[in-house]
Amino acid sequence: MAARGPGMVTARQVAESLGVAVSTVGRALADDPRISPRTRLAVREAAERLGYVENLPAQMMRGGSSRMIGLMLPDIRNSFYATIADALSTCCDAAGYQLVVSIADSAEAEARHVRQLASARAAGIVIVPTPAPQAETCAMLARIPHVQLLRRVRELSPAWFGIDDMECLRAGTAHLIARGHRRIAYIGGSGDYSTGADRLAGFRRAFTEAGLDLAGAIEHLGPPADPRFGAEAAAALLAAADPPSAIITGAVQLTGAVLQAIAGRPLSEGREPALVGFGDEPSFSWWRGELTAIAMPIQELAQACGGWLIARLETGAAIEAHASIASAQLVEYRRAS
Amino acid sequence: MAARGPGMVTARQVAESLGVAVSTVGRALADDPRISPRTRLAVREAAERLGYVENLPAQMMRGGSSRMIGLMLPDIRNSFYATIADALSTCCDAAGYQLVVSIADSAEAEARHVRQLASARAAGIVIVPTPAPQAETCAMLARIPHVQLLRRVRELSPAWFGIDDMECLRAGTAHLIARGHRRIAYIGGSGDYSTGADRLAGFRRAFTEAGLDLAGAIEHLGPPADPRFGAEAAAALLAAADPPSAIITGAVQLTGAVLQAIAGRPLSEGREPALVGFGDEPSFSWWRGELTAIAMPIQELAQACGGWLIARLETGAAIEAHASIASAQLVEYRRAS
DNA sequence: ATGAAAGCGCTAACAG
DNA sequence: CTGTTAGCGCTTTCAT
Fold first, then answer.
1. Its pTM surpasses 0.85
2. Among A215, B5, B32, B256, which is 20 to 30 Å from A259 by CA?
3. Please, which pLDDT band fits residue B1 given cuts at 50, 70 and 90?
């Protein structure tokens, strides 16, 4: 049931409509110099007229590439990942590849989707892996040129493109410490993810680097993609007997959730906690108070990642070890007065 | 260059490793009842051990379906479309299909991507068409079961799933009129898009239904996906000699741009324009003033759309005319006091 | 400059 | 229960 209507047109049909051989059609369409200009034109015209569309599966059986690059993401609604998909799509498009976006947020779904990409013989894969991919997933990926993005798992490719997670949170936290904050709460992802562990480490490092006691560091760890967790953590902090003077988040989703939670309570002038949010979104510009965003060059990161993979695919070079680390920048939003 | 490493394992290799025929392997893997349990087990075990992954292109040449559904979107960073991709992905996943997301925001890119989906023999396509698809695009889609989503173009499938665009803006505008506003500005997409034209018509209809003169209706029309346009329109309105008392937007992107533009100016108590924004986002909850959101059940819409298409694919039924219209709901956000 | 034929990996019809 | 064979649409020798 691949395609219906009058059915797909084959090269053979084009050939018959002209009384030539299939091989002639194939050559004409491939701009083979051995075909006479007259024949080539006739073939192209007939193909167009009949609505001929090349059959990729058949071409692949002859050793052709699928020119498809798979992108495995945990969540497309996350602006972070949407930006990546967008940048990679542009990147692939320019190089004549097609990006196939797969959304899978569990190791099982991940395995299913990787299998589908493998069975479709995707030329390459860019993957933001789940924290603990199945053995089968790793086995399949071992046979497909692939790159890890953002998250990193030991079992997969040694090629990785990501951001300096530790530095992101170290810088954000240091920013707060420099402004005099001593009781700082961190709401972030648990250590299951490589990124979660690194970010937490960065938060702690800022304290030790400043010679501060970690007693002032309050940590709320949970699922980084769950807004409910962020909202509850923020609510708990605000309602506490001795609330922190500042809050810093360690995941895009959590930042939004925390803002939402704070916005839900009445504005208590002068008592609002200082905020540092992971990620940078247009909507931060209308936050009611001051907010420092940890902005990352994800677009450039994705471009670099896609370009790198495509270059290996084109040259046929092996996927050697590679690590590209992008660093973040703090952006300050303050309300117009 | 389909896949490297030790190269992909074929059914023949599995067969040879066991000294059986290829067809036996094929049957065992397909759970054919005619194969003895012992052989079947041996085959499955060998396949697993060797890392065999079925070759979709080869299966397709035998008439098998690609079980791939293409989704053509103009912009994945738009939360609207991201939600659709997410919902459809879930939908497809549950039915054993794979969603292939393609991002194309021009008629040319659209044609390229549709061609790629066609050549890959996608089983079906869900498309948010560009305003004027190329003739070639239409010709190719005529041979592939497809459904239009949100936007509607006459040249394509008679099957369409969308929202009642006119009613959305009529209701939003009527809401403002009911609250006493008489000078209302509309910032929306130009009439090139089916949705743009309908939304503008809804805006105007609210005026005539209320027996009001259209002189109070200010219209700024432009590219609906361009935040710059939204920002400039908002800035112009606010700076005008006689600014409108209310602003209503006609596209998700424009709503954000307008909020951002207003947030950039100092808060002038009591003089802020009333706002009705197209779309509904979590970030609206921290808008500094009052805001009414036009919330649409896009998730349900996408689910319905995907379910409908998959049902036709499974049964082999033709894609008959169909129109499913979802209606919106107004959601009010007001700052906590 | 073009045609004929082989074969990619798989499934299904036909033979044992 | 299992093996043999044909053929899906295409590219690529090898022959004209």
1. yes
2. A215
3. very low
B2 assigned to some structural domain: no
| Total count of domains within chain A | 3
What's the DSSP call for residue A279? Answer: B
Which of A98, A140, A314 would you mutate first to test chain B, the one with the most B CBs within 10 A?
A98
Together in a domain, A94 and A198? no
At A5 the pLDDT is 46
With CB atoms and an 8 Å threshold, state whether B109 touches A89. no
Which residues have C-beta within 8 Å of that of residue B265, sequence separation ≥ 6?
A336, B238
Please check whether residue A173 lies inside any domain of the structure: yes
Residue A112 lies in a domain: yes
Of B60, B145, B286, the CB nearest to A286: B286
Tell me, yes or no, whether A57 and A101 share the same domain.
no
Q: How far apart are CA B286 and CA A286, in angstroms?
A: 7
**Burial class, B216, CB count within 10 angstroms (exposed 0-12 / middle 13-18 / buried 19+):** middle
In this structure, the answer to whether residues B214 and B227 fall within a common structural domain is yes
N-terminal to C-terminal alpha carbon distance within chain B = 62
Counting one residue from A and one from B, how many pairs have CB atoms under 8 Å apart?
219
Domain hosting B135: range is: 68-162+299-325
Task: Give me the phi and psi of A334, to 5 degrees please.
Answer: -135, 145
A240 shares its domain with A152: no
Q: What value does the mean pLDDT take over residues A40-66?
A: 96
Q: Nearest CA to CA, how far is B172 from chain A (Å)?
A: 22
Query: Are B234 and B178 contained in the same domain?
Result: yes
